[in-house]
Amino acid sequence: MNIQQLDYIIAVDRLRHFARAAEACGVSQPTLSMMIQKLEEELGVELFDRKKSPVETTPIGKKLISQAKVIGFNIKQFREIADSARDVVEGELHMAIIPTLAPYIIPKFFGEVRRRLPDLKVSISEIRTSEIIDKLKSAELELAIVSTPINEPGILELPLFYERFIAYISPTEKKMYEQEKILSSELDPHGMWLLQEGHCFRSQMINICHKNASAMQIYEAGSIETLIRIVDINGGYTLIPELHISALTAEQKKNIRFFSGDEPRREISFVFREDFVKERLINELVDAVKIMIPKFMLDKRLSKFRVKL
Q: What's the pLDDT score for residue 166?
């Protein structure tokens, strides 16, 4: 058994095709097939059902490949510990971000990372929190930006900033619209528009209203921008994250209302596996976020301390 064989089976599992996997790995198909067959003979199990088209991973194959991904991650970490001694940040970084943050973070984030770390190739996926957690555990991702706490064993959370929730209200909702500030306890669940099931932002919105979703008369949309357009056309109200204010038109900004008293907000953090070793990288990424986010939103610890892993 060798590292190359593990790379091959991960590629076949991902692409579900031996020829495409061979091309992705930079070898001929006969070479890849032979190496995988030797591994199967050594293990005494079949990793793939070759009779199926596309190729399917067997149940035992799924378990072994899941472990192969973790082994591959740890090997990469092994090399990166040596790189850190030479103060080198290069190679690849696979990370993710939740959809309700991506439009405000990613465009500037890419530019900052390229400027700071020109030798680092970054790939970022926009996926929901539950999938991010699964991919972190299986070592398919190294790092993510999500709303916390998530309280998952083996995953560390590094708070970055705190983002307030803002009410976006149609002028047709006269009682709410005429208030300068609103109380979360006074939010009427009728006419409220929510994101689709599965968004963590949706759950936070429901918690702010102190209502069970099943008891609310709600409509659902796929994105915050869609929610705003629905309110503009149909009336009612929704909640938006503070960073979205800059994307509103001057006319739309007339429809926002801040909360009075204890303002509801969400904590935004980097999350990563507890065996993550790239200390300089994480600090460079934190510094990139600090430039992009208003100072009053940042976690106060970021301005005083560097991250120690």
A: 92
pLDDT, one tens digit per residue, over 51-96 is 888 999 999 999 999 889 888 878 877 776 666 655 666 778 899 9
Ordered domains of the chain (ranges, CATH): 3-79 (1.10.10.10), 87-161+266-303 (3.40.190.10), 163-265 (3.40.190.10)
Whether residue 9 has pLDDT greater than 90: yes
C-beta separation of 113 from 288 below 8 A: yes
Cβ within 8 Å of residue 37, ≥6 positions away: none
Assess whether pLDDT exceeds 70 at residue 186: yes
Rounded to 5°, angle at Cα 240 from 236 and 241: 170
Amino acid at 194: L
270: helix, coil or strand? strand
Q: Which two tokens stand for residue 133?
A: 């957690």
Closest CA to 259 of 205, 184, 190: 184
- Both tokens of residue 37? 């067959």
Residue 218's pLDDT is: 58
Q: What is the SS3 string spanning the chain?
A: CCHHHHHHHHHHHHHCCHHHHHHHHCCCHHHHHHHHHHHHHHHCCCCEECCCCCCEECHHHHHHHHHHHHHHHHHHHHHHHHHHHCCCCCEEEEEEECCCCHHHHHHHHHHHHHHHCCCEEEEEEECCHHHHHHHHHCCCCCEEEEEECCCCCCEEEEEEEEEEEEEEECCCCHHHHCCCEECHHHCCCCCEEEECCCCHHHHHHHHHHCCCHHHCCEEEECCHHHHHHHHHHHCCEEEEEHHHHHHCCHHHHCCEEEECCCCCEEEEEEEEECCCCCHHHHHHHHHHHHHHCCHHHECHHHHCCCCCC
